[in-house]
Specification:
alpha+beta; 4-stranded mixed β-sheet
Length: 546
Amino acid sequence: MKKTETDKKILQYKEKIYGFALSKTSDYEQAQELAQEIISESYVSLLNASEVANLDGYIYRIASNVYARFIAGLVQSRKQSCIDDNPDAVSVTDHYYYENNKTEIEALKKEISYLSQRQRSVVYLFYYKNKTVNEIAKELDISANTVKWHLSDARQSLKETLIMYENVKIDENLSVNPIKFAFMGSSGTIVKKDTEDFFDTRLKQNIAWACYNEPKTVSEIAREVGVSVAYIADELKSLVDNGFINQVDKSKNPKYQAQMVLSDIREENKESMYKGADENLKKQIAQKLCEEYYKPVFKAFEEDSNHWGMSCPNNDLNFMKYSLVLLCQHFLQDDSVNVKMEKLKVKRPDGGNYIANATVANDWQELNGEVFPNWIMGYMMNWGDDYYSLQANCRFTDRSFDWKQQVCFEALVKFIKAECNPDALTLSEYESICKNGYINSNEVQVVQMKGGNKSPWEQIKPFMETLAPVIDNLKNYGKKIDEEVQKSLKAVSIPEYTKDFLMALNTGIIGQIEVIPFVLEEMLSSGMLKPLTAVQKKAAMSVLSI
C-alpha cells in the first residue's frame, strides 16, 4: 500500500485504536503506550500489504495481537488466583494449565474480550491489575459481593466456553466467513439518510446479520462476528438508536434483534430463501394483465385526443405508455397493503419513516444487476408547492439503483419555468438534469402533466373509473393467488418482522409494483410496446406534474 494511502488509513483509525487501548487497560498512560504500539505495527503492516478487503477486521486483528502480548505475562502471574481465599471460589485455571499451551491462552484472552463491559472490567482489574475485591468495588462503585458474583460468573462462563473449545469443533461464523450487504434500500419516507448510509461499514452489516434470525446478547454478537464487545459497542448503539436493531428486553444483559428485511442470496442458501410469489407466477399475472387490463387502458389512452393530459417530445405514444403502466398498476393495489406496511415502518431520528432492507451476500461475491434481472425501484415521489414528480427505475430504464436522483427534479422544474433557459440554473443543477437524461439538447424528455402539485394518479382517476368492472374482476382473481402464496409463507421459519413484511408484500400481488418488469417484458414480446431509444431510456417512467 502506498505511503500516502497508509497515512490516511492510520489517521482514520487513530481515535478508534486509542479507544480500544483505553477500554482494555482502563489506565491513560498504559492506553497511550498500547495505542502507540498498535499504530506502529499497523502502519508497518499496511505499508507491506498489497490490498486489504476488510480494514476494520485487519486493524482489529493487529490490535488484538499487540494487546495479547501486553497481557501475556499478567495471565501467568495470577493464573492460580482465587477470590479473597474464598474456598467456594472457582479459579479460571481449575481445569487448565496454560504455561506451554499458546492456543488455549489465546482462546482465553479472546473469550475475555467477549464478556460484558462490567465483567470484563472486574476480571481485568482482579487478574491483570492485581487489585483486591474491595479495591475493585470502590473503583467501580459497586459492592464487594457484586464484584465476587461477577468474578464467579465470568470464570464459570469462561470455563464452559474453553471446555467447548477443547471438546467441540467450532462451526464457522462471521469472523471466518463475513457477509456483506448488497442492494440496500427502503420502503417508506427518506429524509436525509437511507439504509446504505447507516450501514457504511462491513462491521455494522455483520452485527445486524449476527442478530437477525434470533435475539442475541452483545457478548453473543461479539463472539459471532469475532470482534470484542468494546469494539462493537458504539456500532451496536448507533444501530439501536436509529431503529435498525431492537433491544428486546430490559434485563442487565439484554438481547438484541435486527429490525430489517434481509434476503440471503449466498449461493449455498439460494434454494432455502423464501421469496414469496415466484417469477413464473408473476409472468402468468403479467400475461393476464396485458390481455384483460392494459389492452383496454391503451385503447382508451390512444383514443383520447389529449392523451389523459400527458405530453412528451413529439407526443410519442410508445414512450408515454411506459409511464402509463407505472401509473395504472397503482389502481390494482389492495388498499390494506399500505395499512400493513405503515405498521412496519420505523421512525428514524432524522425524520425518516421506512422499512429497511438489504440482500446478504458472501464477502467475496461480485454482484451486479444480473443477480436480480427483474428488479424495480419505486414508487419514488417528490413534491413542492407547484409540482409533483413520480418515478421508478428498473432494467428498462437507463438509471442507477439510487433514489437520490430524485433530488434533481427541483432543478428540472426551475428549468421549465425559465422557459428552458440554462442560464437560470447553477452549473451543478444544469449538469444534474443533463446527466440524468431529463433534458436533451435543452428539450425536456420526461412525461409532463399540467396539474401542479396534484399527483398524476389523481389526474387520471376519472379515466380509470370507466374500467372499474375490469379492475374489480382482476382483484378477485388476485385474492385467490394471495391465499395460496400466503399459505406457504405461514409455514416458513423466518423472523416475525420479515414474515409480517412478506405477508404484506404478498397481499394484492397483482397490483404490486414488482409485477411491472414482467408486464413490460410481456408487452415487448407481444408487440404492445416497442423498445426505447437510448435517449428515452434515461427519462423513461418519469412523470412530472407542474
